[in-house]
Automatic annotation (TrEMBL):
Alphabetical list of SUPFAM superfamilies matching this protein: ADC-like, Formate dehydrogenase/DMSO reductase, domains 1-3
Cofactor(s) needed for function: Mo-bis(molybdopterin guanine dinucleotide); [4Fe-4S] cluster
Keyword set, alphabetical order: 4Fe-4S, Iron, Iron-sulfur, Metal-binding, Molybdenum, Oxidoreductase
PANTHER family to which the protein is assigned, alphabetical: PROTEIN YDEP, RESPIRATORY NITRATE REDUCTASE
Name of the molecule in the record: FdhF/YdeP family oxidoreductase
Residues covered by the Molybdopterin oxidoreductase domain: 151-515
InterPro entries: Asp_de-COase-like_dom_sf, MopB_CT_YdeP, MoPterin_dinucl-bd_dom, Mopterin_OxRdtase, Mopterin_OxRdtse_a_bac, Prok_molybdopt-oxidoreductase, YdeP_MopB
Record-annotated Molybdopterin dinucleotide-binding domain positions: 667-772
Similarity comment: Belongs to the prokaryotic molybdopterin-containing oxidoreductase family.
Pfam family, any one: Molydop_binding
Iron among keywords: yes
Organism: Dactylosporangium cerinum
């Protein structure tokens, strides 16, 4: 097919859909070159300061202003950082700000605005050619908009007309199950509660959420093993642990405030273990992030005492190997196990012990990609540590065997009673700042009966009992035409989901798509026949309602709930808060509703009063939320109370994964974040700690795999993925980059590579897309046309 550059559809180039052409990626349009260097500096520190400076400059914000805001935030109990879910320092000793937190806040505070004039001037087909960075860089959405097919533009609509359109369309559906209601994990607890109440009163449990792509496996594993779907440790435990394992988490970029605690643990001589196919920055040296506020105290701390380079998807075999070595040691010295704990508090130990004994070492070595001697070394470290915390993130969950792997973590912890005592326990590192609170407050496509009973009783509604659809099922149902209306409270569904092409077809097949958002993104351009953009306040902005100024609560990774007050004036006078928008939508959908929607929107204390009656652990919510450090939701497993059917912690005896070998010269590809992005929000094309500048369309590969394919650094490659259903997908014009990663493994960035994730490639255990486990072929790029 003949072509010339200017004829290429920029959107196609962004996706890497044009053979023979370098893919563009979704960051800022490249004006310079790209480069690679070893990153020798500590994680965070001066590089961080410079990078923040650049982001601030682009957002037109003076750095001092933002820094002052953060300081003020800490002193006055202001807003919760909309970045990651890592908890605030409970001792209040650290000024807990980090480079990436400053970036997220600044991105929300930007002065640039996308109003009616902007949308009138730029039809959707034109915006579709813009990079995702450039879309968000337009600034904050300033007024409600409706898609006008005649002009292919978004046009202003009044809030009332928008609510009426949604209400009328929903009521006209033959069944409430023909609508789906997505949540991204930034939504406050109060808005979450109203959202789930609206959709359940309307009549559906179709509540897909970002958790379905994130930590779903964690929730299911911990619920099965411990009776509650959350971790059991808090930051005081981090201060008391003798060993901290960090599995499948790029902490330096994605939970930078964790570095403070890793550095502290290192100073007191705790063992730090990083388990990751990639050698990540947090396993080297760091300057702890709060010190970034005061660069005068530039000092680095060694973090990372042991790095275990497991192969992609090899974690379960590794953990089982450690368990095997522990159980072997117990044969000679029974005191190695915490027998009293095992006998009193657990169930299934004998079966597990037999299974582990029957698993030969070569299987564990093969499955993990780690030598037996190294597994034994790790086991020694485990045995010599009295108090062990195992933390994990997406490297473990986004796999077919995510649930089994998280349960294997629990197995290992149970052997030595490393749960429900000081300094020990499982510690999932959550993603979005309130993703955990979303679940706690009722967003769940598989709600339990007890919760629905309470909701029915307190709120006087009749919630549907059948389970609803999760994220991938929702995409499939939209594609089939079974779901006609799609509502999203935040997020960027069109780009965060797997199989971008298929997901786009699914969204375009809807009668109506509604996006409640702060910034312009791909999901506004990939829309249904009718489409609305409803702009809302961000967490940093002051929220004034009929009864006065309002605060909202969020729950962090360690189950602490606290109230957050915005401090900035809203970006536009037309913005509404999420609770107010939800109340408006609910009233328009349910004209005969007895729920006091207007009162809820007028005074969030009223929402919290109702939540206190529906949700376990939220008693006296209004008072306790205002306590200076908030309150901790009771986690029974922390006190060795296990709400499982046997009332004991459950060992799991699952089979080892059989999918660690992609076969036939193929590679396993994991999709990860760069340092300069927050999910689908791309700040720049750099990935500082991995030493890469100016390029996102890369495949990180082992040197041997590159040589085998005749590839040099930055050579153009094509990547083909092989889905379970036999289908193939490809990206063209990526560049190979040499990296310290095991042979047979490769990595590249989400969301670009979501093109390669087949819709059928979903974990049967968790429903999560297996975005850390794609089977691919990497070949030198074919010349144009193929
Ligand atoms: N700055 C910033 N902060 C964020 C986000 C962001 O995009 N930017 N996103 C937020 C969200 S929603 C989430 S869920 C978290 C995500 O936080 P992370 O889980 O750190 O996110 P990823 O970049 O996907 O990185 C996964 C890590 O797992 C490793 N990994 C990949 N495959 C495997 C495997 O098979 N086994 C093991 N052991 N490791 C593996 C990768 O090398 C990488 O270090 O961060 C949150 N915080
Ligand atoms: N291949 C691959 N795919 C993945 C992943 C992966 O590791 N690999 N990770 C998955 C994970 S862990 C997650 S969590 C999802 C993320 O999926 P999402 O949560 O859907 O995506 P985000 O990029 O976080 O959403 C960004 C948008 O949220 C909106 N927004 C920001 N703040 C607010 C607010 O306060 N209110 C409202 N209403 N809107 C706001 C803005 O418009 C912004 O454009 O992606 C998943 N997709
Ligand atoms: Mo996430």
């Amino acid at each position: 097919m003949p072509h010339s550059d200017e004829n290429h559809d920029a959107e196609q180039l962004m996706m890497g859909a044009v053979p023979g052409e370098p893919a563009l990626g979704r960051g800022p349009v490249r004006n310079g070159g790209y480069s690679r260097h070893e990153y020798h500096h500590p994680a965070a520190g001066w590089g961080a300061a410079r990078s923040v400076g650049e982001v601030l400059e682009r957002a037109g914000e003076p750095p001092e202003g933002v820094r002052a805001l953060f300081v003020m935030n800490q002193e006055d109990g202001g807003f919760d950082c909309p970045g990651c879910a890592w908890p605030d320092d409970p001792n209040g000793l650290h000024l807990d700000i980090c480079e990436n937190g400053v970036k997220h806040v600044t991105w929300e505070l930007t002065r640039a605005k996308a109003g009616a004039a902007f949308f009138a001037a730029h039809p959707v087909r034109e915006l579709a050619q813009w990079s995702d960075h450039d879309l968000e860089a337009v600034g904050r959405l300033a007024e409600p908009l409706q898609y006008d097919p005649a002009s292919d533009t978004y046009q202003p609509i009044t809030w009332n007309d928008a609510f009426t359109l949604v209400g009328d369309t929903l009521r006209a559906l033959p069944s409430p199950d023909q609508a789906a209601f997505y949540t991204s994990g930034r939504l406050s607890n109060e808005a979450t509660f109203l959202y789930q109440l609206w959709t359940r009163e309307f009549g559906t449990n179709n509540q897909p959420d970002c958790s379905n792509m994130c930590h779903e496996a964690t929730g299911r594993a911990l619920t099965a093993a411990l009776g509650t779907g959350k971790g059991t440790v808090d930051l005081h435990d981090w201060e008391a642990a003798d060993a901290i394992w960090v599995m499948g988490d790029n902490a330096a970029s994605n939970a930078p405030r964790m570095l403070t605690w890793l550095a502290e643990a290192d100073r007191r001589g705790a063992q730090l273990v990083h388990i990751n196919p990639l050698r990540e920055a947090a396993s080297r040296r760091t300057i702890v992030p709060h010190e970034f506020a005061d660069m005068a105290t530039f000092r680095t701390t060694r973090i990372g005492t042991m790095t275990v380079q497991v192969r992609i998807g090899g974690d379960m075999a590794l953990l089982r190997g450690v368990a095997k070595a522990v159980l072997e040691a117990a044969d000679g010295e029974p005191g190695v196990l915490d027998r009293e704990f095992i006998d009193r508090h657990t169930h299934g130990f004998d079966g597990y012990r037999e299974l582990v004994a029957a698993t030969p070492w070569p299987d564990l070595v093969q499955g993990s990609g780690v030598a037996e001697a190294d597994i034994r070394r790790l086991a020694d470290s485990y045995l010599h540590s009295e108090r062990v915390i195992i933390a994990w993130c997406l490297g473990l969950t986004q796999h077919e065997h995510g649930v089994d792997t998280v349960r294997e973590i629990v197995n290992l912890l149970l052997l030595r009673g490393n749960i429900g005592r000081e300094g020990a326990g499982p510690c999932p590192v959550r993603g979005h700042s309130n993703v955990q609170g979303n679940r706690t407050c009722g967003i769940n496509h598989r709600p339990d009966a007890q919760f629905l009973d309470r909701l029915a009783e307190v709120c006087g509604i009749r919630p549907p009992r059948e389970h609803g659809l999760g994220t991938v099922e929702t995409i499939q149902a939209m594609h089939r035409g079974d779901i006609r209306v799609f509502v999203a409270l935040g997020g960027n569904f069109a780009l965060a989901s797997p199989d971008l092409q298929y997901t786009a077809e699914a969204l375009r097949n809807c009668d109506l798509t509604v996006q409640v958002s702060t910034k312009l993104n791909r999901s506004h351009l990939v829309h249904g026949r009718r489409a609305l953009i409803l702009p809302c306040l961000g967490r940093t902005e002051r929220d004034i309602q009929a009864s006065g100024e309002q605060g909202v609560t969020v729950e962090d990774s360690m189950a602490m709930v606290h109230i957050s007050y915005g401090m900035k004036d809203p970006a536009s006078p037309h913005l509404r808060s999420e609770p107010a928008i939800l109340a408006g939508l609910a009233r328009a959908t349910l004209p005969d509703s007895a729920t006091p929607w207007q009162d809820y929107a007028a005074d969030y204390d009223r929402i919290r009063d109702t939540m206190a009656r529906v949700l376990d652990g939220f008693e006296d919510f209004n008072r306790r939320a205002r306590h200076p450090h908030g309150f901790r939701i009771v986690q029974p497993a922390r006190d060795r109370v296990f709400l499982t059917p046997t009332a004991r912690a459950e060992f799991s005896s699952a089979a080892l994964p059989d999918d660690t070998d992609p076969g036939d010269g193929r590679l396993l590809l994991t999709t990860i974040r760069s340092h300069d992005q927050f999910n689908t929000t791309i700040y720049s094309n750099d990935d500082r700690y991995r030493g890469l500048k100016g390029l996102r369309t890369v495949i990180f590969m082992n040197d041997a795999d590159m040589r085998e394919r005749g590839l040099d650094e930055f050579d153009l490659v094509d990547v083909t993925s092989f889905s379970r259903d036999g289908s193939r997908r490809a990206v063209h014009g990526y560049r190979a980059v040499r990296y310290d990663i095991p042979p047979g493994c490769a990595a590249g960035y989400m969301p670009e590579l979501n093109v390669l994730c087949g819709i059928a490639d979903v974990s049967t255990q968790s429903e999560q897309p297996v975005t850390k486990h794609l089977v691919v072929e990497v070949t030198p790029a074919a010349a144009d046309g193929g």
